[in-house]
Structures are given as structure tokens and as C-alpha cells.
Design brief:
This protein has 149 residues and is an alpha+beta fold. The chain contains three helices and eight strands, in the order H-H-E-E-E-E-H-E-E-E-E. The chain has a single domain, classed as protein yfey like fold.
């Protein structure tokens, strides 16, 4: 009887916890045609040389990337510009309501932080290798970032 009860409890916990896992595929964690962990040489093929390099941060028009310690791979891509969309078409400047409509494709946010009028939604890829973050200020998306965990 104890074993059956333990199995029932474990099953219920697994069912509840599976609802909260993100369903974002690794290939959805992109901004434009850039994805974390891609080679820097690929970024240069698409966008050329950066406007400015400050340490590991490469600044381009409308977005920036951060590289790994060796400067060979992208660790993070971020934008505060409306010219770069996620795979699902989410861009900076959209209403938080639109974000929530689109996010239903991913499931509930894995993490959400609220501080005053700012919110940050975090979604992890199903393999937990990547994460996508949306910074919302006063109901408007102000920053999108995709990074290698």
C-alpha cells in the first residue's frame, strides 16, 4: 500500500511539474538570423565587422553580441531595436499583451521577475542549453536577449 501511495504521489508531482517546463525548441532561441553558440565567423559573414568592440561585447547597428572567452562563439545576442525579431515575430516595441499571446506557444515563463514597472520574462529551451529573456517596461517590450546558458 505504501509503495502504491508513493508511486501515486510521484506520478502526480511529475505531471504537475511537466506543465511548468518550457517548450521552446533550441532553434527558436534566435534574434534575426543569429543564435547563441554560432561561430563569430558566421556573424561576420552576415553583418560584417562590428561598429565597436568593448572587451567581449561586439556592438552592431541595432544589436550587440557577447562572445566567449576565446572570442570564437556567440554567448549572447541582445537588442533594444525593433529591427530584430524572434522566430515567432516578437520585436521590441510590441505590447506586453502581444508577448503573452505569442508566448502561449512556449508555455508559461520559466521565471518572471517584477521590479516596479519592469518585468523580465525568462524562457529556457527544452534542452536547457539556451535562454530567451524579454524585458518589459510599462507594458512595452524594451529588450530581447538570447543567450547560451
Amino acid at each position: 500500500m505504501k509503495k502504491k501511495m508513493a508511486a501515486l504521489i510521484c506520478g502526480a508531482l511529475m505531471a504537475v511539474s511537466s506543465v511548468s517546463f518550457a517548450t521552446v525548441r533550441a532553434d527558436q532561441v534566435m534574434l534575426g538570423d543569429l543564435q547563441p553558440n554560432m561561430k563569430i565567423s558566421q556573424v561576420k559573414e552576415i553583418y560584417g565587422e562590428p561598429l565597436q568592440v568593448v572587451g567581449d561585447k561586439w556592438i552592431y547597428k541595432g544589436f550587440y553580441i557577447e562572445t566567449n572567452d576565446r572570442g570564437t562563439r556567440v554567448e549572447e545576442i541582445a537588442t533594444e531595436d525593433s529591427g530584430f525579431a524572434t522566430q515567432d515575430g516578437i520585436i521590441v516595441g510590441m505590447s506586453e499583451d502581444v508577448l503573452n499571446d505569442k508566448i502561449t506557444n512556449y508555455g508559461k515563463a520559466d521565471k518572471m521577475e517584477i521590479e516596479g514597472n519592469e518585468k523580465e520574462y525568462t524562457y529556457y529551451s527544452s534542452d536547457y542549453k539556451y535562454k530567451m529573456e524579454f524585458k518589459v517596461v510599462n507594458g512595452i517590450i524594451r529588450k530581447i536577449s538570447c543567450e547560451l546558458r
